[in-house]
Amino acid sequence: MTLRKSFAAGLVVACAVLSACGGGSSEDHSTHMQHGGGDHAGGGMQMNMGDANATPAKDVQGAQLRTNAFTLLPTRAPGTDQAAGTAWLAIHPGGTTVTLEMTGLAPNGKYMAHVHAKPCAEEAGGEHFKFDPAGSEMPPNEIHLAFTADATGRGFMTAENDKPAEAAKSLVVHPAEFTDNRIACANL
After folding, report:
1. pTM
2. pLDDT at residue 170 above 70?
3. Could you point out which of 98, 104, 130, 143 has its C-alpha 20 to 30 Å from the C-alpha of 117?
4. 111: β partners
5. What is the distance between the alpha carbons of residues 30 and 38, in angstroms, rounded to a whole number?
């Protein structure tokens, strides 16, 4: 199964758990999701949970690029001790692009990643980064990446937002179904 097909299948699971990982609304968010870079017409983006075919953050021309390797967290689920990878955050005139690439995940496992407001050493990234602190816990006010690892345990995803996330500090990954089991964090 391709990563794109896996991603689409994983969106249903991701939506079901969003309220447990920072999304407090019981609204059916699947009707608002978009797999691309967002709908800029009409004053803003629709919910963007990632697009595996988008330009990766490290390839965005003219961007201020931040990158770091993921470090394992003590809250990780059993069986994730081999998880490793890299996160990139690009701030550019069009907003923010975030990409993650990981290995050592559960084959065909479903995962979520969120941009966080604190560095990894502080409360494993703390709360999710929000463009408007009093705003929604869903994209586009937050940056979320929903993805499914392939059969070898490799995961890759890119998410875009039309605002610059200057104050973002880290990217945290967890299994989609176990939001308290943060696997890894990368400082940005």
Report:
1. 0.77
2. yes
3. 104
4. 147, 175
5. 14
According to the 3-state scheme, what is the secondary structure of the chain? CCHHHHHHHHHHHHHHHHHHHCCCCCCCHHHCEECCCCCCCCCCCCEECCCCCCCCHHHCCCCEEEEEECEECCCCCCCCCCCEEEEEEEEECCEEEEEEEEECCCCCCEEEEEEECCCCCCHHHCCECCCCCCCCCCCCCCCEEEEECCCCCCEEEEEEECCCCCCCCEEEEEECCCCCCCCEEEEC
CATH number for the domain formed by residue range(s) 3-22+47-175: 2.60.40
The answer to whether 50 and 4 are in contact (CB under 8 A) is no
To the nearest whole number, what is the mean pLDDT of the chain? 81
Q: Measured between alpha carbons, how far is 36 from 52 in angstroms, rounded to an integer?
A: 9
- So what's the pLDDT on residue 137? 94
The CA distance from 105 to 108, in Å, is 8
Beta bridge partners of 95: 92
What would the pLDDT profile of 23-67 be if each residue is shown by its tens digit? 333 223 322 233 333 332 233 445 689 999 999 999 999 999 999
Neighbours of 41 (CB within 10 A): 6
So where are the chain's domains? Answer: 3-22+47-175
Name the nearest CA neighbour of 85 among 61, 59, 111, 62. Answer: 111
